[in-house]
Amino acid sequence: MLINPFRTILSSQWIESVALFTGRFALASVFWLSGQTKVDGFSLNLMIPGNIQLGWPVLKDSTLYLFEHEYNLPFIPFTLAAQMATLAEHVLPVLLLMGLMTQFAALGIFVMTLVIQIFVYPDAYATHATWLALSLILMIRGGGQFALDYLFPSRRIP
What we know:
Layout: H1 3-10, H2 13-37, E1 39-48, E2 52-59, H3 61-70, H4 78-98, H5 102-120, H6 125-141
Antiparallel strand pairs: 1-2
């Protein structure tokens, strides 16, 4: 039958790794771009050879306004929520792209998505369901062969 060879090709580890990388890239790009809308740049704390600057994100006034007046986040002060979300939207995508601590990063994205769905944009369930599904796949399967996690055999998922 035609379906069996197709299923065999799609179930190969290489194809799965391409799919996992694509999922990592998709989630990382959405959250990185969202994080970039929240900052006016970074306060310079560290210079790495190669002219790479690392620092703490400087939040836009509009970001603080949104977290104070628009987003209905309970339990935490709006400034802390804005800082945590912005930091997570910069760190977790980098981890996902590198495939480093993939399952942890996917869990972070999963939790952020739930918070956004429940408290911020409850009508965007179609988009959030996509993010949740990708996060779950990465939590279950890991980053695949094209992830730094793959270099650690003891951490590989069979």
